[in-house]
Amino acid sequence: MYIFQFDTFTALDYALDFCNRDDVIAKNPVFNWLEYGKLPEAVTVYPSYGLQFITADGQNRYIQSVTALPTPTANISVDLAVDATSTFTFSGAKAVTSSDTSIATATLVDGVVTITAVASGTATVKITNGTSSNVVAIITVTVA
User: Fold this and answer.
1) Over the chain, what HEC string results?
2) Tens digit of each residue's pLDDT (9 = 90 or more) over 49-70
3) Where does a domain end: 68, 85, 118?
4) Structurally, how many domains does the chain consist of?
5) Against a cut of 0.70, is the pTM above it?
């Protein structure tokens, strides 16, 4: 494409010579449009249990960045009597801890968490997917 009907001055020349002065405007969407004919697009991916394919919204778009949001933590409250048990199933659960094992204990077998009430009080059971920073669920256990 020629600009101003000068056959020696093209859109590429314009993009390289004018928009890229001192690399200040090189990340500008107009610069990308003039040089590549496409506009950048930032995509946010929401958690799901299925496979997701990310594509650009239009023909003249490209994926510049993808933000993957973490799966939200489940917050659950349970009231149990002494010696009672409660079970929960969490896919992806790898570890379980109780804040006070004298009040409630927790075990994990094949993604099934079993909480057993030991004595009166309140304890917090934390379920993670293997690392302490990736919490799948927090269960507040009140034993009466």
Assistant:
1) CEECCEEEEEHHHHHHHCCCHHHCCCCCHHHHHHHHCCEEEEEEECCCCCCCCCCCCCCCEEEEEEEECCCCCEEEEEEECCCCEEEEECCCCCEEEECCCCCEEEEEECCEEEEEECCCEEEEEEEECCCCCCEEEEEEEEEC
2) 566 778 877 777 777 778 877 7
3) 68
4) 2
5) no
